[in-house]
Structure formats: structure tokens, C-alpha cells
Amino acid sequence: MDNDLLIVGHEKTSFIDYPEQICTMYFLGGCNFLCSYCHNAHVVYSKENAITKEEVFTFLKKRKKFIDAVCISGGEPTIYQGLYAFIVQIKEQGFLVKLDTNGTNPVMIERLINEKLIDYIAMDIKAPFSKYETITNTHGNMDHIKRSIEIIKNSNIEYEFRTTVCEELLNTEDILEIAKYLKGSKKYILQNFRDGETILGGQNVFHPYEFEVLEDIKKEIEDYFESFKIR
Ligand code: SF4
């Protein structure tokens, strides 16, 4: 990918995306996966830079008193080599930084963690490894995904692993298999699918799990983790 960044969206204030902090979110366009249930198809396919870095830093300077953290989401932010310099510049302004990632770039993740440039990382675990291709519609490198999981688990920063679930793509056994692999991690979240107009595979194609089914899964796996949530 291009050396620089494609910033395609900005949510000025969020109270829910960085635990216990007020954050502002930037969305980087483009992704190396094409998950059918993705709710950000417009971000994944976006090719237009909507916001310049100058605009980002002007905004951050103005809002410094009201914002604790900057969340960088996508798309997949780590496809850009320029992500590193962007985060360095954000840290220089004194903000906490959270990165949302699909875990495909362990080299970037390790560098950001080792250099204390990110304070929180949220990594999507798409499926059991044997099903990654089906969910992401791409030939993912499972060694990269496994390496990212290990780097994050062994780091000292706050983190969460999370899996989006819909009835059509992951069955109960799949979810239990992922949970077993992640056993011993700090935080695991099951995100129930929500339909909408910007779903990559189309609206009215996928369905969320019944709440009761997720509650039954919870009983089986919640003890694997320090913290487990359904959202
Ligand atoms: S859900 Fe999949 S396609 Fe969408 S941004 Fe995340 S990794 Fe990319």
C-alpha cells in the first residue's frame, strides 16, 4: 500500500470506543480483508482522502482539553507504512492511542507496542484458523495472525480480542474453538452482528445470534478470560 495514509472518516467524540476515556476516532480507508459481514464497506472501498493530516493536528490541538485518546480504526490501519509516523506525531501531542486491527501486520504491531506508541489495542479474531478464508474472502497468512495474538497477549498494554458473530458464518463450535485458542487472554468480546445499509455482503443477508444462545456460550467460556463481554 501507499506509504502515507488515507484518512476517510472522523468521529469527533466517542464515549464508548476507548474504555473509560473520551476519544476521537479516525477511520483509515482500505482493507486487506473483505469480511462479508463488515459494517464499514464504505470505508473499506474508499479511495478518497477526506481529511488531511494537517486537519487532524489542527483539530487535536483545539480539542486537547476535552479529549483523552485518539482511536485509529478502519478499514485496516496497518496496511499503511505511514501509520507509524502518524502515531508518533499523535503521541507527541500527549494523547493516549488505541489501534483497531485485524492482526495481519505483526511487525507493525510489535514495533508500536515496543516503542510504547499505543496504549490499547483491539484485535479482531475472525474465525477458527481453518475458516479465515471463508470469512475474509482473502488468502490470509495465519502465521501473521497467530504471531499478532502472541505479541498482544505478551504485551503490557491494555488489549481486547473480539469476534463478530452472525448465524450464517460462524456456528457455536467455531466460537468455542476460537475461545479455547484465546484462553488465558485478558479480555474477549463477542460482538453480535448488526445489519445495516453499509454491510459489505449486502443488507438482509446475515442475522445476529439469539441473545439466549450467546448467553449459553458465555457460561462455557467466560472463565477462560479475566474479562468477557457480549455486546
Ligand atoms: S470487518 Fe473485515 S473487511 Fe471490514 S474493516 Fe474489519 S477486517 Fe476489514
Structure report:
The chain has a domain at 7-164: TIM Barrel. Strand 1 and strand 2 form a beta hairpin. The mean pLDDT is 96. It has helices spanning 41-44, 53-63, 83-92, 106-114, 132-136, 142-153, 172-182, 211-221; strands spanning 7-14, 23-28, 69-73, 96-101, 120-124, 158-165, 187-192, 227-230. The protein has eight helices and eight strands; from the N terminus they run ββααβαβαβααβαβαβ. It is globular. By secondary structure, it is α/β, with parallel strands linked by helices. Strands 1-2-3-4-5-6-7-8 form an eight-stranded mixed β-sheet, with helices on one face.
Per the CATH scheme, the topology name of the domain at 7-164 is TIM Barrel
Number of strands: 8
Q: Which ions and ligands are bound to the chains?
A: iron/sulfur cluster
CATH architecture of the domain at 7-164: Alpha-Beta Barrel
Strand order of the largest sheet: 1-2-3-4-5-6-7-8
CATH class category of the domain at 7-164: Alpha Beta
Shape: globular
Provide the low-confidence segments as ranges. none
Main beta sheet strand tally, sense and closure:
8 strands, mixed
CATH superfamily of the domain at 7-164: Aldolase class I
Oligomeric nature of the chains: single chain
Pairing-aware structural class of the strands and helices? alpha/beta
Q: Helix proportion of residues, in percent? A: 25-40%
Q: What is the helix tally?
A: 8
Distance between the termini: 33 Å
- Measured on Cα atoms, how large is the radius of gyration? 17 Å
Strand content: 15-25%
H/E topology pattern: EEHHEHEHEHHEHEHE
How confident is the prediction overall: mean pLDDT?
96
